[in-house]
Amino acid sequence: MFATIRDFAEEWSHESAATQRVLEALTDESLARQVAPGHRTLGEIAWHLVTSVHEILSHAGLQFESLGDDRRVPDSAGTIAEAYQKTSLAALEAAQTQWSDETLRETRNMYGEPWTVAFTLRILIQHQTHHRGQMTVLMRQAGLRVPGVYGPSKEER
């Protein structure tokens, strides 16, 4: 859990940079890759990472610009990576200017459950980590080089 906004900012900076590296490794051709019919494509997962930052944090009361929704997935990997960079920076700035350390202890109704703002921020980061893992599998299947996240990847050794 986060005790201070600064704690969140430090971890978000590291985690969002890792997500950014993964998104920047995508190609337009790879966006259609899926593990099996009926599952999300690599592009859909990538775009979900972009849109979920705003969706989760706005649900918790943070105000910043939304860059779209899950239904309209861009067909450009560069567009997705650029959108993530914008939304991750906007989210960080909004958290640092709109919330205080005391806000982290406040409770919000999140998806029918009472979550503290600190817990919501933890879930946001874990959500990103979960989907990055899904993406790296699909990236390897698509023949892409996977960037290291928590140390070097096999491709970087």
From TrEMBL:
Keyword Iron attributed: no
Record-listed a divalent metal cation binding positions: H48, H127, H131
Signal peptide start-end: none
Keywords linked to the UniProt accession: Metal-binding
InterPro entries: DinB (IPR007837), DinB/YfiT-like (IPR034660)
GO molecular function: metal ion binding
Entry keyword Nucleotide-binding: no
Assigned protein family: Belongs to the DinB family.
Name of protein: DinB family protein
Organism for this UniProt entry: Kyrpidia tusciae (strain DSM 2912 / NBRC 15312 / T2) (Bacillus tusciae)
